Amino acid sequence: MKSVLLKTQGITKYFHDPYTFQVLKDIDMEVYKGEFLSLVGKSGSGKSTLLYLLSTMDMDFGGKLNINSEELTGKSPDYLARFRNEHIGFVFQFHFLLPEFTALENVMIPALKLGKFSEAKIKTKAMEKLDLLGIADQASKVSSKLSGGQQQRVAIARALINDPLIIMGDEPTGNLDSINSKIVFDTFKRLTRDLGQTIIAVTHDEDFASRTDRTIEMKDGKITS
Amino acid sequence: MNVILTIAKTHLLSKPKQTLVAMLGVTFGIGMFIMMISLMTGLNNFTEDLTKISSADIRLYKDVTEPRSTILDRIHPIGLNHVHSVKPKNESDKIRNARQIAEILREDPEIIGVAPRLTSQVFYNFGPVKLNGSVAGVDILEEDKLFNLSSKMKAGSLSALITTSNGLIIGSGLAKKLSAKLGDLLILTTPQGVTYSMKVVGIFQLGLGEIDNVRSYSNISTVQKLLGKDAGYITDLNIKTTDYRSAKLKAEKIQATFGEKAEDWETANSTLLAGAIIRDIMTYSVSITLLIVAGFGIYNILNMTIYNKMKDIAILKATGFAAKDVTAIFLTQSLIIGLLGSLMGLIMGFVFSLLLAQVPFDGGELLALDSLPINFDPQYYVIGIVFGVLTTALAGWIPSRKAGYIDPIEIIRGI
């Protein structure tokens, strides 16, 4: 029996600039606990926009969003920031680390913000995550000095640090060569298989999508399959 | 350590030059403020001290120059009266019942001392030298309580005046001009033509040329004799209050109670003190200008930092930092700049004030002053740091708030 972790009801979204345009049309979807879901579609199909809505960063839409049986529409931005911090891990196409901080500090910052554990505990946890991603030896390097693949793995470690309900990836392999892409994909696969981690990834890489548990395809703001 | 503080610190340390420049802006602003305010308030206090030497907190006297109504006005108050050639009445400037008034005033808890005084114009003759001046008949012990005369004696003593009925304590400038020493006999001539031989028993120096060059002190009874007046003849009562700042109010009360003119020290020296207000206005306007310039510097630098850190802000917001956290990160940076910059400014201001205090300044014959008077009151250092931190907080708050409202999706998409 698969339990539903994330559920949307009739999500619609408009862009108003430069002219009004409906980018998402009545999206109903469910994400199950522990699955590796990919969102595919041509550029402009609304897949990234949908991911940002699911991540609670963009709450300017019609319809309902429910994560872990909690209704999130209408919550205050501060509450949502806290929710993201605790329950959602994000991996972007461009690695998006804080350049002045070391790899370890980058991983630690969301946990320090959450403030659930002591700094020493967080440090051990961060080292565990880096070790899981195979880059524990790079921990004390300033993140701007790491290679692209290493940076993306640090970003995944950061997404994992607060043991989130869901990891969301926006073209997580889009900017990586085939070797690093494989490493990132395998890492995701391993996380779902071994740790039961739920992952939603937007991608236009068909090979990537075909190897995930389930694929949702989007076209012109609608789910087609 | 708090994660917001850590991030703010890392941002500042990653661009040390930029941070230092922003700090120096505040440092110069606050440093100049401290320096200027130390000099200006130093000068203000100095002038105030000068006025305190020459005048008591409150002086009670009979004002004979006050315009008086004519008899015609009194018997025919309505209608248009015109009296030609009104001449001043021959009025005595004696305060009626001066000693009783003094006794009543001494019982007031707000009053520390009351010194009666009787002043007369005189010529000092010593050998061939003839000098114009004035002699003040005083109760020397009361006078000492008010003006601290005993600390200003160059030679002789106050008590000698009490034991010598024709004794005279003369100003240092006067002594120099007359080349008179202790024990010398001076001939005093009053405007009424009375001459009197007096013995120098002391020499004082108040540090104010206009007094030291003309004034001498004598016993009140001696001056009464000199003027041919009775023992109740007193023209002035000098009053010292516990709080000289509120002398003006007290003077009004005393005037209302006793019906004689009571003048406070501020009114008596209004011309001297007018400069103080102008100096204050100058100091604050220059300092505020400097701080505004420093504030704009911080505003610019923070705006630039935030522009460069758009990506970082997007990541922070995506990983769960709320708008207020992002604002706090940048506001903390400007507050650190403000606080450290102000502290350095205080040190700079203090060092420059120390240097200024060494600058030789010749007060001439008028003022006993050999270097610039500088005030080191810590109160202005507190004002300085509050000022500095407030300006930077305000200058930092505007761009910081903007940073908090940055939409992370726009940044993430835009790349």
From TrEMBL, chain A:
Q: Where in the numbering of this chain does the ABC transporter domain appear?
A: 6-225
**SMART domains for the chain:** AAA (SM00382)
GO molecular-function terms, A-Z: ATP binding
Give a single Pfam family match.
ABC_tran
Q: Which Gene3D superfamilies match?
A: P-loop containing nucleotide triphosphate hydrolases (3.40.50.300)
Domain of life of the organism encoding this protein: Bacteria
Residues annotated as coiled-coil are none
**PROSITE patterns attached here?**
ABC_TRANSPORTER_1, ABC_TRANSPORTER_2
**Keywords, sorted A to Z:** ATP-binding, Nucleotide-binding, Translocase, Transport
Q: Does the keyword Nucleotide-binding apply?
A: yes
The record's annotation in SUPFAM superfamilies points to:
P-loop containing nucleoside triphosphate hydrolases
- Of which family is this protein a member? Belongs to the ABC transporter superfamily.
Name of the protein this chain belongs to? ABC transporter ATP-binding protein
Automatic annotation (TrEMBL), chain B:
Specify the protein's topology with respect to the membrane.
Answer: Multi-pass membrane protein
Q: Assign the protein's first listed, main location to one coarse class.
A: membrane
Name the domain of life. Answer: Bacteria
User: Domain MacB-like periplasmic core spans what residues?
Assistant: 19-253
Q: Which Pfam families match?
A: FtsX, MacB_PCD
Organism of provenance? Algoriphagus aestuariicola
List the transmembrane segments.
20-43, 281-302, 335-359, 379-398
Q: Where is the ABC3 transporter permease C-terminal domain?
A: 285-407
Q: Which UniProt keywords apply?
A: Cell membrane, Membrane, Transmembrane, Transmembrane helix
Subcellular locations according to the entry? Cell membrane
Q: What does the sequence similarity comment in the record state about its family?
A: Belongs to the ABC-4 integral membrane protein family. LolC/E subfamily.
N-terminal signal peptide: none
The name on file for this protein is ABC transporter permease
